[in-house]
Write a structure and sequence with these properties.
The protein is α/β, with parallel strands linked by helices and 314 residues long. It is built from 13 helices and eight strands. Helix content is 45%, strand content 16%. The protein starts with a helix and ends with a helix.
């Protein structure tokens, strides 16, 4: 019996050590290119961690807020930033838990991001600002505008999430999933399986781009690096994401908000017309436009079309 226990313990210990080594090697390989670091990075010392941002141009303030999917960062706007700087003082940031911003081992929620954006506008931009925001980050921007209308101007939402999906709250199953991802070695290993080059490339070609041939290798590697910076802490935002802790019901705020809002949808984005109809049901003043032959990231897939709509609206 003692021999069996000893053998089992040795095998378990060896397996854990092997997985830990695989985790270290994978993290190193994904971040070795150092693609996101450059001389234009600034850092805002927020109370939960340092927030990386870039500031360019002059004119009316414009804040760019990226999506919450794995690998997201301000890189998703890199094809339109320079063409906005002639008219706007452009700020693009990495949300807490993403990109080059700090990635503390906490639970990430929409309320957390709402407060981050409000503090950033008040302490860094210091003027009433317009916002461009993508996907699942739309709810906390709507909430922020509702709660602090004096610091926000016009809002452009690119492919917002379905309102029904936003209303889904954490359950026992999703909370267990979050707990699993947050476990020290096994959770990191599972996260690395889900956040590897193959899965990110597949997301680009099947979900985020309408034309797979337009997906550049550098897009994949920048997203891959963003998903693994911060070593093992990179998984915590993802754990909260799959656990539904980032979801928020914004129907009340959507009804009451007075900001001018434009929804830009990718023409081929799944259910985008229904999603826009739902938003307009609660706020009929919302304007809309569809970008032909694009899906979830038209700012990467068709930047000229996005810039045209942004310039006309702002």
């Amino acid at each position: 019996m003692n021999k069996k226990i000893t053998t089992t313990a040795l095998l378990a210990g060896s397996s854990i050590a092997a997985i830990h080594m695989i985790n270290r090697i994978h993290s190193s390989l994904c971040t070795v290119k150092n693609l996101l670091s450059n001389s234009e990075n600034y850092f805002y010392e927020w109370r939960f961690g340092n927030i990386r941002y870039q500031k360019k141009g002059s004119g009316s303030p414009l804040l760019l807020v990226h999506d919450l999917t794995v690998g997201s960062s301000n890189y998703e706007y890199h094809r339109i930033i320079n063409n906005l700087t002639a008219r706007h003082e452009v700020y693009s940031l990495d949300l807490l838990g993403y990109g080059l911003s700090d990635k503390p081992s906490i639970t990430y929620t929409n309320n957390l991001y709402e407060q981050l954006i409000c503090d950033f506008v008040k302490n860094i931009i210091k003027r009433k600002t317009s916002v461009i925001v993508t996907g699942e980050s739309v709810p906390f921007i709507i909430m922020a505008c509702h709660n602090n209308p004096e610091i926000y101007n016009k809002i452009i939402c690119i492919n917002p999430q379905n309102l029904y999906l936003q209303n889904q709250i954490p359950s026992k199953q999703t909370s267990l999933l979050k707990f699993l991802f947050e476990t020290p070695i096994l959770g990191t290993f599972i996260y690395h399986i889900l956040a590897n080059k193959h899965t990110i490339e597949k997301a680009f070609k099947e979900e985020w781009f309408c034309r797979p041939e337009e997906v550049k290798e550098k897009y994949i590697y920048n997203y891959l690096e963003a998903a693994h910076l911060g070593r093992y802490n990179a998984k915590y935002a993802f754990a909260s994401y799959v656990g539904k802790y980032m979801n928020m019901n914004i129907i009340h705020e959507l009804k009451e908000i007075n900001n001018s809002i434009l929804i830009i949808g990718g023409e081929k984005e799944q259910d985008i017309e229904i999603i826009i109809e739902n938003y307009k049901y609660y706020n009929p003043a919302i304007e809309e436009v569809l970008i032909p032959n694009t899906k979830h990231l038209p700012q990467l897939e068709s930047p000229d079309d996005i810039l045209e709509q942004v310039h006309m609206f702002l």
